[in-house]
Automatic annotation (TrEMBL), chain A:
It comes from Tautonia plasticadhaerens. Pfam families: TctB (PF07331), TctC (PF03401). The lineage of its organism: Bacteria, Pseudomonadati, Planctomycetota, Planctomycetia, Isosphaerales. This is Tripartite tricarboxylate transporter family receptor. Keywords: Membrane, Receptor, Transmembrane, Transmembrane helix. The keyword Transport does not apply.
From TrEMBL, chain B:
PANTHER family: TRICARBOXYLIC TRANSPORT PROTEIN. This is Tripartite tricarboxylate transporter TctA family protein. Residues 21-447 form the DUF112 domain. Keywords: Membrane, Transmembrane, Transmembrane helix. Pfam families: TctA. InterPro entries: DUF112_TM. The chain crosses the membrane at residues 12-32, 52-72, 108-131, 143-161, 168-187, 199-219, 323-347, 362-386, 398-415, 477-494.
Amino acid sequence: MIRSRSIRPPGRLLPLILASTAVVLAGCSGEERFPDRPIMLICPWSAGGGTDTVSRKVAAMLEQDLGVPVNVVNATGGSGVTGHTRGALAPPDGHSITMITVELNMLHWRGLTNIGPDDFRPVMLLNQDAAALFVPADSPWGSISDVRAAVAEAPRSLKASGTAQGGIWHVSLAGWLDAEGLRADDVLWIPINGAGPSLDALMSGGIDMVCCSLPEASSLMEAGRVRCLGVMAEARIPDFPDVPTFGEQGSDWSMGGWRGLGLPLGVPEDRAELLVSAVDRVIRSEDYLGFMEHTGFNVSPAPPGEFREIMEQFDRQMGDILMGEAFQSVRRTRYGPMIFPIVILALLGASLAVLLLRGSLRRDPGAPRLDRAGLARMGLVVLFVVSYMALAGQVGYLLSASTLLLGMLLALGVRWPVALATSAALVPATYQIFAVGLRVPLPWGWLGW
Amino acid sequence: MDPAILEAFRQVLLDPMIWAAVLGAAVYGVFVGAVPGLTATMAMALLVPVTYWMPPLPALAAVVTMVACAIFSGDIPTILLRIPGTPASAAYADIGSGLSSRGKGDEALVTALVFSVAGGLFGAVVLIVLGSQLAQVGTLFSPAEHFWLYVLGLTCAVVVSKDAPLKGALAVLLGLLVSTVGLSAVHASARFTLGYPELYQGIGFIPAMIGLFGVSEVLKNLLTLEPGVPGPTSVADVSRVRVLHALPGSLRRLFRRPVSAFRSGSIGALIGMLPGAGADIASWVSLGVSSRSKPEPDTPDDEAALDRLSDATTANSSALAGAWIPALIFGIPGDSVTAIVIGVLMMKDLRPGPEIFEKQPIIVYGLYLIFILANLALLPIGLLAIKAGGLVLRAPRRILMPVILLFCVLGSYAINGSTFDIGVMLASGLAGFALERRGVPLGPVVLGIILGGPLEERLIQVLTSADGSAIAFIDRWPARILALIWLILLFVSLGRGRGPDAIPASAASREDSSDHSDGG
C-alpha cells in the first residue's frame, strides 16, 4: 500500500518535484470518472452503537462496489444535530454521504436546528427499528399493563432511560404513557446518551426500565439479565418471536426509529443515481443480509421516493406528538444547561483568585525570556498553521504542506538542499501513508491526487 | 482438561495466519499509536475492513495486538518529545519527558515497555481467571458511582501535580470548562458557541491534546533555538538510546516491585471493565495512588520517577483486557475500541454474551491465548520501535520541529476531517505555552476535557433521578465506598500540600507582554 520513495541526493530534487507534479497533473485530465477519490460516510452517532455498526458495514461493502475507500466519520454530539448538520452542509459533489436517522424528523420540531428531511436527497432507507420496553430479569412486572398500573399508582417515582432527553426512545415511551391516558412525564426520564449505558444503569439498579430497540439489548436478553415486556410494532419481529407486541397487550401504540442514507441537496443527478444503484446492490447482497440477520437489525429497504414519503409521514407524526400539549414536559429539562458551567466557573474563579493573591502564577523561573528573535520563530508556527488552514482546502495537502514546510525550514536556517529534500520526501510520503494507506482524510485541492 | 482448550491451543499456535496477523497488527499498532492524533479507536475502525476478510481467530488476534501495541507506543513520543501519542499517556507526559531530558530516555522507554507488557499480561490473567465474577462488579455501577469514579480520576490528576495542587486544580477546571463548549449531551442546547456552528460539536480533546502538548512544545523549542548552531536534538538527549542496555534494569525493577505492579495492574483491570472509563482514567488513578505511597524518601528522583512511570504504564495496559470483561459477557463494551470489536465479532457470527462460552469455547480460549501472545509480541517489536524512535530524534531540532508541526496538523485534521480542529489545535498550543510558563500542568487540562462531558451527564442524571436531592449521590453502598475513597484521597493530599505553592525563588521580572496570547 505504501509506495516507497528513494531519497535522491540534494540538488537533483527540483527535477523530481517537477516530474512528479507533471505526472500528477497528467493524471487529472481524465476527470470524468466518479467517484475518483475517497467517500466520507458521516455517522451522527458514536462508534460502537447500532447506527455506527450499520454504517461501517455499509461502508465496507460500498468500498468494494465503488472501488474507492469509504471512510466512516463519527460526527457526534447534540442528539444528532452535529452529524446531520454536517451532512446537510457538506459539499454536494457526491463524496459525502450521511447516515440519517429518525432524529432528523425530531430535531427541528424541538428547535435545536433548522435542518430537516427537506435538506437531504434520500438515497435509501435501510431499516426501521421498533421501540421495545425492557425491565431487569428480577422485576415484578410481567407485562406492559403491570407497568401501566405501577405508574398510575405512583406517578413520577419510576425512572426510565434509553437515550437523551427528547430522543426517539424517550418520545416512544412518553407517547405510550400519553396514549394510555397517563401524563407523558409520569415516568422520570434520565437522560443517558445511548442504549448501552442505559442498559448498564438498568442492571445496576439505577433506573427501573429501558426503552430502546430489540437488537440493542439482545445480548442481555439472552444472558437472562433483562426481560422484554413488549415491542411497539404492528407485528412481532421475526428475530424475536417470543417478544409480544404492545398491540397484543391491549395498546394500539407503535413507534420506532429508522436509518437511511442521504446526500446533501445539489448533488449532480448522475452521481446520485450511481450511488443509489451501488447502495441498492449492497443491501441486496447475501453478505449484507446475513450480517443484518446476525446482528438482529431488521431489514426494510425502501428506494428514494418511498423513503421520502416515509420521512415526510414520520415528520408529520413527530410534529403532532412533539408540539402537542402532553409533550411540553418532554422538551424541557429540569436541570438547566448552565448549572454545570456555572459551578465550574465559580470554582475556577476561586482557585484563580487564590493563586493570584499568592502570586504563584508568575512566570516559571526556568522558562526562558521572550526575546524578539524567539517570538519571530514562534510566529512561524502560527503562520504555518494559519496559512495551512487557509490554503489546504483550496490548494490541497501536497502543495500547501510542502510549500509551508519548505518555507519554515528555510526560515529556521536549514540549508536549502536539506530543506528541499526534507519537504519533497516527507510530504508525499506522509500523503501515501495517511491518505492512501491509513485512509485518513486529507484535503484534496488542485492536484486532486 | 477441556478438549476445547487443547483445540484452541492448536488453532492459535499452529496457524501461520495468526502469527502473521499478530506481527502485522503489532507493526501497524506501534505506528498508529506513535502518531499523535491517530487514536486506537480510529486505528480499530480502519482495521475493520481488513479483519472482514479473515477468519475469526486471526481477526481477533489482529485487533487485540493492535490495541496493545498502540497503547504502549503512545509512550514513545510522550517520553521523547513530550507529545502524548494517545490520551492514555498524557498522565505521565511530564514524568517521562523529564527523565528523557536528563538523558534517561532509553531507561524510561524500556521501563514503559516492560511494564506495559507486564500490565497487559496481568490484565489477560484477570480476564481469564476472574472475568465472569468481575463482570458482576461492573453491574453495580449506576450513574452515581460513575460520577464518583470521574471525580476520583480528576482528583488524582490534581494530586499528582507535585508542587502545586492548586495549579493542578486550576488546570482540571480549565479543562472542564472547555468541555462545556458546544451542544451538551444532556440538554442538547448550545453553550459558548458564539454562533459558530463548528463549535456545536465542542472542542475535541484530541486536537486540544495535540495542541497543548505538541504545539506548545514546538513553540517552546523554537523560542530557545539558537540561530546558526546545528544544536542538539529536541527535548530528549537521545545520543544514547541503548535499548538492550536498559532492559535488565527494567526487568529488575519489575521483580523488585511486584506489589505495586500487582496494585497498578488491578487498578487498571478494574477501571478498564467499567463502561465509560478506560485506559486514560486508569493511568491517572494509578499514578495518583502511586504518588501517595512512596515508601523511602531517600529514593533518588529519577528512580522515583521511573517507579511512577511504571505504575501508570502497567495500569493503562492492564485496562485493555479489563474492557473485554463486560464486552464478552454482556455485550456491553468498556470503551469505544471494544465497542468496535463487538461489531467485528458480530460480523463473524459471534454474538458476545454468556452463550459464547458454551457455543464457541474455542473462540473464547483462543482469545485468551491471543491476549498472552499479543503482549509477548509487544516486547521485541516495542524494543525495535524504541530504537527507531531514537533514530528519528537524531535529526536536528530546526528540522524536527517543523516536521513535528506538520504531524500535529495532520493528526488534528485526521480526527474529523475538519479544518476547525486545526484551529483548535493552534489555540490550545498557544494557551498551553502560556499556561506552562506560569507553572500550570497541562495533563490535567486534557483529563478535564475528556471527563467534563461524562461528569456533567452523570451529575444531571443523578440529580434528575433523585428529583434534586443531593442524598442521591451517596444513597447506595457502592457510591458510599467511592465517596469515602475520594474523601481519604482529598485529606491525604491536603495534608501533604499544606504550605504555599512553590513560589518562584528568583522573582524574575514578569513578562506581561505577549506571552499569553491564546486567541485564534
